[in-house]
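Q: We require from you a single protein entry containing the residue sequence and its fold in token form, and nothing else.
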Amino acid sequence: MATETCALANIIETRRLIRLSKSCLSDTEKQAVMGVLDREHLGMGAEVQLFEEALSEFFGRPAVCVINGTAALHLALQVCGISSGQEVLVPSLTYIASFQAISATGAKPIACDINPNTLLLDLNDAEKRITEKTRAIMPVHYTGDVGDLNAIYTFGKRYNLRIIEDAAHAFGTNYEGKRVGSFGDISCFSFDGIKNITSGEGGCVVTNDEDVLRKVRDARLLGVKKDSDKRYSGKRSWDFNTTEQGWRYHMSNIMAAIGIEQLKRFSEFATKRQKLAKRYDLLFNANPLIQTISRDYNIVVPHIYVVRIIGMNDRKYIQKELLDKRIQVGYHYQPNHWLSLYKAKSYKPLPVTDTVFPELLTLPLHPEVSEQDVDYISAELKILI
């Protein structure tokens, strides 16, 4: 028995770590970066323009690239006139970036509750939080799903709200036969190292609103008017003017070079992510304690895979035990209304978020996870619960 135990320990010790998430790069991305380095124009230039053109073709409408997804949200809010004294509705179950982008404008993020089955924004709850200061709503496409976007746009129209979609998780997801980002008011995406495609860091704002596009192009370059066109051609503005607050939020050629190659591989990445998520669902389907999140992975391209462990009261223990088995897991995300910066002295409770979050667990999902890995992860998790 001791020999068998020792042998099992050795197998686990030599097993590769199954990472929760990771960048998936090939030689083509590395060669593209080397091309930029060889040309020695590392800032914003031709590669950024090419990446924007490729993204615009992907979405079927204009895209403007920025330094990261948070910057995309911040600029989208700012150029829509969101400012101090105003409020933006947003689900509390999101990464702090969503809230920080809102508060960066001086506006107040209003934490809203979620639907317990989809973990997406609960519009009924959001409606109860509308005031005369509400100017926008930021639906968060958590894990890659978008929920009932038609209802969100109907809601926005009813209350005259700008709709700024935090689509950081939903690159490639479809809704009613249309790609997310190809329609609607404004969609903001992230290309950080572990998203559905990456540019190392990076993000983009996608919209048909020409005024928004123009203002974002200027604001990402410190508000310098029409500087983007010069940067694309390797030049810069020496005599310039600015009339609005800007930020140093432009994308670099190094980042864009990675993004261009990643976009070419997106179909491969999407198929793999969807296949793995479907397999997780199948393996957990009959387990009463592991509740999968309602998603149609034929149209949703998942960024992360989340389950709800009913009655879980020691998530840290499960994390440790799985890590001992060379499986890295996490949880997304600590509710923002729990954070000191956004904890209101008096607010309407968020009972679903408060109940659901402690039971959420995020399992490994990225193109380098194999189906055998999913089988192993699922089996070890079932043992623990």
In short: The chain has a mean pLDDT of 95. The CA atoms of residues 120 and 146 lie 8 Å apart. The two ends are 25 Å apart (CA to CA).
